[in-house]
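A quick aside before the break. I want you to see a complete sequence-to-structure record at least once, exactly as it would be stored in a machine-readable document. Don't worry about memorizing anything.
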Amino acid sequence: RKQMQAPALLVFTALMATGVAPEGEPPAPKITHLEAQDGTPGIVAVFYVRSDVDRVWQAVTDPEHGPELFDSVSAIRPSKKHPGLWEYHLKSPFGTLCVYCEVDQNRAAGTVRWTRRSGSLERFSGYFQVHPSDRFSGYVRVEYGSFIEPGGLGSVLMTSKKRQRMVEKMIPRLERLTRG
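That is the input. The structure line, written in tokens, reads:
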């Protein structure tokens, strides 16, 4: 019996050394509150979605899905006022705020980033990064980051608790959007 356990232990050790763990259910979402280098408060969430990476990519890069994913977004569309930029229309207690962002999509890297160039908020940026999971078959690993100005309108729009709730709501919405 000891001879049978040794090869299994060696295989398990080899798998762990390569960073490939046995398949199973992915961990619960990990949400971290942090500050960007410029002091802008933000949130980074890492979670897994049972789906195909192309469906997840489509959901996070299609501006039509912005309002479906986030309660605070009323619309995302190409800007007529600022060609080459995208308008992010955000709901606030003061009405709709408009932030003009440069959007960079890199499908090969699985990353879409948006960065404020002008508009209602001083600092507003974020990203999605999507990759097929190496560890959990049939899942996509998603990393989402969001950073909004400290103080002023940003503090009203996004307190730490609001950021946390936003991400907790976004995850099941993304899962619904990407079901096959």
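Two observations worth writing down. Helices lie at 2-17, 53-61, 66-69, 152-157, 160-177. Residues 39 and 150 are 8 Å apart (CA to CA). We'll return to this after the break.
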